[in-house]
Give the backbone structure.
Amino acid sequence: MPAPRVSLLRAMPVALGLALVAGCKGTATVDDPSIARLAIVFDDTMGQASLGSEAKRGAMMAVDEVRGDFRAVYFDDRGARDAATSAVIAVGFTDSDELRVALPSFAASGTALVVAGATDPCVARLPGGELLRFACFSDQMQGAAMAEFAHERLSVREAVVLFDARSEFTGAVGAAFTTAMRGLPGAKASVVAFSSEFGPAVAAAVAKGPQAIYLAALPQDAPRVVEALRAASFQGPVLGPDSFDEPAILGAKDLGRVYFTTHAWLGGAGDPAVESFAMHYRQRFGSEPTAFAALGYDATQIAARAIARAKSGGVVSRETVARALREIGALDGVSGRIAAANGVELPMKSVWIIEANGGTRALASRWEPVKVPDPACGKQGGR
């Protein structure tokens, strides 16, 4: 099993690290200084590709829809340094480990960043954190939501948390679930860690005889660990975080009952904006969108608003766009209402819980946790 990748954000030649998309200046060139650049930064080729590709697609849809007075330039996460120095604002990241490594580049350039899916509130407390705005909820919210759901709806009283000890995200979201579960009436949660070889940890977790196993794993590893749990004869529900919201989990026919938390439900009728987004996504890409596409779309809409607000003041620069980003109010996006609560860096949004079973997916619940654990900044991270 490959180790989780934390990118080395090495400088890349701009010609290799980006692709030009939309603007409304007609024949303006890439180097035209009169055109504000919006950098879009997602890992869509390596460890986070199943999430980053979706987020990038959502961002592309927003760029085409807004058609604002800016030019969108696309980077993978290894080009974050170039993104920070070449744009007035950026959108990106589905992983907090990657965001932590990239943040110094944005801080050094003073470039604001709208974070799509990195769910660790502790990153916002690092130097440069004041430049960040988040479209996603926190690890603590999704861990608490799943614990309460499992306790109330699945009658789980004994759970094992099986987490990847190599990742900040998995440690943080696993800790949030553990804390929340232990605070519920009659509930118990034990913890088992794994690293590159997960077989012994799977055996140890199953041997405890839990009613459910909360698997805090990265997207590239989650399907294989679930398969190993089933091979070890665990028949109960496997619970997971938003890293499960990717094609290998959604399309698998032999993983049994899997429940995971995510940022939006795009498979049902009801909200016209959500239905329209999902329809246009299917038409353009020929597949079903995940919540990360919705996050990429919403984050890009926020960034475009910041550019437009700065332009209305007469000057578009990193400083004016960063100020505009701080001044923008709530956005009712495809992934829900995006507005940070007082004293909380990440939005207090509803958590969607999805059941994936036999290659199908269905909405299990829309959950707002009663009690959200405080983040353990300095001890554990998040995605």
Remarks:
- Residues 1-30 have pLDDT under 50 and may be disordered.
